[in-house]
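so i finally got all the pieces together for this one. its two components total, 808 residues if u count the protein bits. some of the lines might not be protein, just check the labels. i wanna see the whole assembly predicted at once instead of chain by chain like last time, that was a mess tbh
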Amino acid sequence: MKKPKIVILGAGYGGIMTIVNLQKKLGASDAEIVLVNKNDYHYETTWLHEVSAGTIHQDRSRVPVKNLINTNKVTFIKDTVVDIKLDEKRVLLENSELTYDYLVVALGYEAETFGIKGLKEYAFTITSINAARQIREHIDYVFATYNNEVEKRDELLTIIVGGAGFTGIEFVGELANRVPQLCKEFDIPREKVRVICVEAAPTALPGFDPELVEYAVTQLERKGIEFKIGTAIKECTEEGIIVSKDDQVEEIKSATVVWAAGVRGSHVIEKAGFENMRGRVKVSNSLLAPGHEDVFVIGDCSLMINPETERPYPPTAQIAMQQGGTCAENISRLMKGQKELSEFKPDIKGTVCSLGHDDAIGVVYGRKLFGSSASFMKKVVDNRSLFLQGGAGLVLKKGKFNFF
Amino acid sequence: MKKPKIVILGAGYGGIMTIVNLQKKLGASDAEIVLVNKNDYHYETTWLHEVSAGTIHQDRSRVPVKNLINTNKVTFIKDTVVDIKLDEKRVLLENSELTYDYLVVALGYEAETFGIKGLKEYAFTITSINAARQIREHIDYVFATYNNEVEKRDELLTIIVGGAGFTGIEFVGELANRVPQLCKEFDIPREKVRVICVEAAPTALPGFDPELVEYAVTQLERKGIEFKIGTAIKECTEEGIIVSKDDQVEEIKSATVVWAAGVRGSHVIEKAGFENMRGRVKVSNSLLAPGHEDVFVIGDCSLMINPETERPYPPTAQIAMQQGGTCAENISRLMKGQKELSEFKPDIKGTVCSLGHDDAIGVVYGRKLFGSSASFMKKVVDNRSLFLQGGAGLVLKKGKFNFF
């Protein structure tokens, strides 16, 4: 009898947690499990703002895939997914192709620029290890350039962050700590450096508790971050950005624009012909793609509505990881011929937004936290995520213990 | 009685050694000594190829000026020299001006591009801490960019070094060691990286012993450096360089072109109206500028003919430092009203050219050296230079002890 073939696309939070759970449920003879990922490493997406700012090294935030999987049970293919032929149960990769009996699409997110002119061409996005590392090196380079010019261009020292949502705030939090180091490294007076966070919504961190938002903004302003709230980016150019607020248009010159205000699912979702919204598939409670009995979509490529708020759950690592568990359970049930599948219900323990390594705000089990207690919880969250993926060994190797 | 005012322009090897020697000869009441320098630090120019390649940090190769001078005897002004009004015995600085009784011009070198099209616009030069640091960060940035592009551009990983003279060879020697680190840091296959050293002369290191040159080239080629000897750079563009050899024209695409093949004296020499050749003043044996009794020119802005070869002495740190001694002696003699001045005669102990931190070639006291003995001598030379400038303390702080 031929073993069923389970193909998992993506080694992010969702994909890895599916594997980790499948490995526990299935023996080597039960199924053929194949994991496909673009890189030979998994990375902590929620740490990329730190890599981008240069406050942690990329190697801290990534793990070789082979360290996370049981290679006796799982075949790993380093390749890029090009398309999925759903009718033929086939996945096209850049260098080969694969058939599947069960498919898990966990291809993560991409930047969404909402059609704002020039963002794709001129703005950086915090979307991968490669992208994060490039942001870090770009900032280093423009700072290194500053003192070489006869006519000093202050825009080399202006960093614009588009978006004061979760990622934008966490990124400027790291920059606030990084800027003094950069000034020392490149002999630049601190007062020449500007970090400007631009947000179209009427508040930073929309959806967060207003008291915590006020704390975050005040703390970051104290560290030298400028906020332009209720201000929309109209265009990004080679020279900087054009913003508008109350019909007042302003140009801000900057050599570094980082767009941190929008994410969407993978373009492969669209290409494969799934019904989708911005690359996200509205999945069933059992995480199946509509109209399919063997294709699961999880993580940032999936869309589920929170019945309490009637709005989609946010694309978070927490949910992606939990979905990996449900997905593995359902594949195992399907393999046993069970009709009844497990229903996914997120167990949201809380949200913590860091403001640099030494400060944070958050709500954990319904309790508001800020300052060092929130910062402590942020590290607990980060370490827990490592523990779920790779056990205590991974926590010891890459965990965050700079509690104080 | 008014104290005579000695103004020294430049805190490089020549300027600092003039100060160090003047401080010994003169008491605080004998003269007013003013040192002007663009930066508040002195740097080891002969180590800049290491900073540029990223094999040592800039802070290793620089020292605050105040640590090298006796501030009871010397006034330091951080400013940029704009012009010298020789008739009025006045020096114009960016932010102020100075009069002098004795002037020492030790403004160092600038890059000479010999009118080759595009070099000024598109090539980097190893001419200062700022410039060196920018080269390092530029290379980091283009390497970080490589993996972000859908269509990989191999020219991002091609580094062209113009010139296989002393600086060019020392720089590619460092790059040979640095490239494997860069590949690891940015997930790049080593075989994708090219370092190409282009030299118009029929040999690398013209003037060096041919046996040593062969050793150097062979060793560097073994480490992956490519040489294009007898090949002239015709033009540098935004895309790379255009070279010609035996009337064959070739374009080499590269994101990083470093011009290391020509130096000249300071543009201030020309502006001030000194008789000069490429910013270098042909000084008398007592180091005075022609037609002046109170203006000394030393270091890379000076030109002296070696009577044995009838060619100019090369612009080296060794000679600049020795000139500082003679210059200080002659100022002190002039102050005492002595007519007879000391004549400068370089005492050339040897020349060592590094090929990375672990290899070198050289001639020391007429003896040919290569490999680890030469590499050892190179570090002795570097440490001796520190000792002369700042004593044993400076050697301990910044010296090179990675002998093996």
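Chain A touches chain B at residues 130-131, 133-134, 136-138, 140-141, 143-145, 147-148, 186-187 (CB under 8 Å).
Residues 5-111+263-349 of chain A form a domain with the FAD/NAD(P)-binding domain fold (CATH 3.50.50.100).
anyway lmk what u think
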